[in-house]
Amino acid sequence: MPVAATGYNNTMRFRLGYLLGFGSGYYLGAKAGRARYEQLSDLLDRVRRSDAYETTADKARAIVDEQVERVKEVVEPKIEQVKEAVEERVGRAKDVVDEVVDEQQGTNGQQAGPDSADRTRSDLPPGPPPAGSLSDLPPRPPPVRPFPDDRPIGGPPV
Predict the structure, then answer these.
(1) Which of 49, 85, 94, 112 is such that its CA lies 20 to 30 A from the CA of 14?
(2) Residue 66 contacts by C-beta under 8 Å, 6 or more apart in sequence?
(3) Which among 108, 90, 110 is positioned nearest to 98, based on CA atoms?
(4) Residues with Cβ within 8 Å of residue 112, at least 6 apart in sequence
């Protein structure tokens, strides 16, 4: 069970993060010459080999692993819910498509076959288009010209 973070812990985390960020930035961007780079590199190697570093790294890995498991526990059921909802909607959409196909086959008195792709608008049953069709969209506005005259972009005036 994780311990609740206190103001002191947050302050220390901030300071530690600040120092790590500053140190790594200085290390990576050191302009103090090769000798200083070697000094910093040796210091960093000694820190990496220390017991305190290994203990802290192990604790950090354990915390990250624990949080990953928590996220999985929360996210996986949600993924299943979304999957079920999508499958349900796909099933309903298939049912609607089947109903429309059945209606059109019954209205026209013919079965859909290879020649059904050749049918024109007049072959469809009379009446308004179904809701949500492309005819419900507003007309497309004319394209906007970048310049009022006919000169090419970046060219001299015509």
Answers:
(1) 49
(2) 2
(3) 90
(4) 101, 104, 105
Q: Does the reported pTM lie above 0.90?
A: no
Q: Which residues does 124 contact at the CB level (< 8 Å), separation at least 6?
A: 104
Q: Which amino acid is at 136?
A: D
Question: E-strand spans in the chain?
Answer: none
Question: Which alpha helices (DSSP H) does 3-50 contain, by range?
Answer: 7-28, 34-49
CA distances from 100 to 1, 94, 104, 150 (A): 57, 10, 6, 49
Mean pLDDT value across the chain? 76
- The per-residue pLDDT for range 25-81, each reduced to its tens digit, is 777 776 667 777 788 889 989 988 999 989 999 999 999 999 999 999 999 999 999
Q: Look at the block and give the residue holding tokens 């010209």.
A: 145
